[in-house]
Amino acid sequence: MEKYSVFDCSMIELDKHHSDRKGNLTVVQNGxxxxxxxxxxxxLYDVPGGESRGAHAHRDLSQFMVAASGSFRVTLDDGKVKRxxxxxxPYQGLYIKPxxxxxxxxxxxGAVCMxxxxxxxxxxxxxxxxxxxxxxxxxxxxxxVKRL
Length: 148
Description:
Layout: E1 10-13, E2 16-19, E3 23-26, E4 40-45, E5 53-58, E6 63-69, E7 72-77, E8 81-87, E9 92-96, E10 101-105, E11 112-117, E12 126-127, H1 130-137, E13 146-147
Parallel strand pairs: 8-13
Antiparallel strand pairs: 1-9, 2-3, 4-11, 5-10, 5-12, 6-9, 6-11, 7-8, 7-10
């Protein structure tokens, strides 16, 4: 399996359709909008102030995260480099490739994190221990991580 870096993950701007009287509409469509077909959608909300979410990686799953409401920060880590993204627009999202550790924090009041995933939930796809993640990435635990 290819080992992606944090630089393979990127923000994707979605089409935004505006109407002065009726608000905005953004569409995500399989086979068109994202580089994978969506097989699962879930969302995080009511995250208490100061709390964080995530703290895991996926072996095979790709994800697209959107701040459907409010804002939050996503920090990606490939074992060598950390890169942070601030999500705060419902027409932009972060494309996260497999094998990347992610932490979510700095949730605003009322924030909703919507996640579109490339597969259904599979417990065996999760890596929840950072040392196991480094083993998966074939990285020595004494390597210092560079933050961007």
